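User: Predict VOC family protein's structure from this.
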Amino acid sequence: MTNVMQQHGAFSWCELMTTNTTASKEFYSRLFGWEIVDRPVEGMMYSVLNVGDLGVGGLMAMPPDMAGIPPHWGVYVTVDDVDAAAKLVEDLGGQIKYPPSDIPDVGRFAVIQDPQGAVLSIISYPSNS
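Assistant:
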């Protein structure tokens, strides 16, 4: 990850939640030339999308509790402190859709919703937490 992606306010990661990881990997690797590297993570497979040696995003199978929700892309915006940013979200009239939580070996994240209903994830990485 480049340093700019670890700066507060930077879009730092994109992630596809899909119902068919095989088809998604085939489609996106052919469309964008991404090299896709599968990594087992806590009982599931997570696929990192690479441009050269740079990880630019990931994809994973949608868990059963998301049945009925269409496959979708999500984005992560870097913040200096996820817990403080989550509190600010609520102070500004937004909602916390998934509370601040740790991602082992990655950082800390939360899913938020702005007052107009748009959803995105916020994340802090070890070097800026």
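Residues 21-32 form the longest helix (12 residues).
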